[in-house]
Amino acid sequence: MKHEKIVECVPNFSEGRDESVIKEILKVIEESGCKILDHSMDPSHNRAVVTFVGNPEQVAEGAFNATKRASQLIDMEKHQGEHPRIGATDVIPFVPIHGVTMEECVELAKEVGKRIGEELGIPVYLYAKAATRPDRVRLPDIRKGEYEGLKEAIKTDPNRKPDFGPSELHPKAGATAVGARPPLIAFNVNLNTDDLKIAKTIARHIRESSGGLPCVQAKGIMIHELGLAQVTMNLLDYKTTPMHVVMSKIEEEAAAKGVEIVNSEIIGLVPLDALLDVSYARLKLKDFSRNRILDLLL
Length: 298
Description:
Blueprint: E1 6-9, E2 12-13, H1 19-31, E3 35-42, E4 47-54, H2 56-73, E5 89-98, H3 102-120, E6 124-128, H4 139-142, H5 146-156, E7 176-180, E8 185-191, H6 196-206, E9 216-223, E10 228-235, H7 243-256, E11 261-267, H8 272-282, H9 294-297
Parallel strand pairs: 5-7, 6-7
Antiparallel strand pairs: 1-4, 1-5, 2-4, 2-5, 3-4, 8-10, 8-11, 9-10
């Protein structure tokens, strides 16, 4: 893939408990010629995140085939989970990696979205850089009311009319958001408390939409299998708000509530520079650069 155009796709599926379903989805992605880099499942979120790459044609085919297979295997009428969602294939972002512009990924999102709407009968909302209107740039705005609320709103509210596909949810697969964006970091922090209110308060204080940190989306949820409250986040631009800034703010907010951080996790993949930024800041390194990292030089 060294000299090819490379696009990354990170679809999220509303299934985090039945591994056989995700295996079927991974199979059709690979059969489309794409390379799977990572996949993870979370039972509390009841959600799977898959990361794969390929040239634009391969990735477009992989995303469509994965959406089709998910629509056959996942029934949103039976789905319950902590993570906000509107469909079996909840979101499909295209990310430019090598030899591809953001504009090309926007066109890819429109092409795949149109095909999902027309061929599968699944309503599609374009978001992020592919959004056709300002109130659809952010996923939380598209997911307002989630699957249950959108079921009626899509039919009665002109503002919820999809960009592609019918103005009613697919009977099993719901709806899908398709877009183009820069690399995003899905970052979760677990607290040593089962008080959900504390996680929700911290999330409100750090997310941009509530006046917190720029380019940070956050929500407080419960991880039932651990008995811990979690601050689950999307860091939309780690250069604007680095991970160490987010972590320090959560530590500060948690201490004020008398709780501590147990651990954190990254869902999917993360850019190396994002982790190096954390190292530089936490260690207070002076005049340090990538050129002094042995592994990168080798």
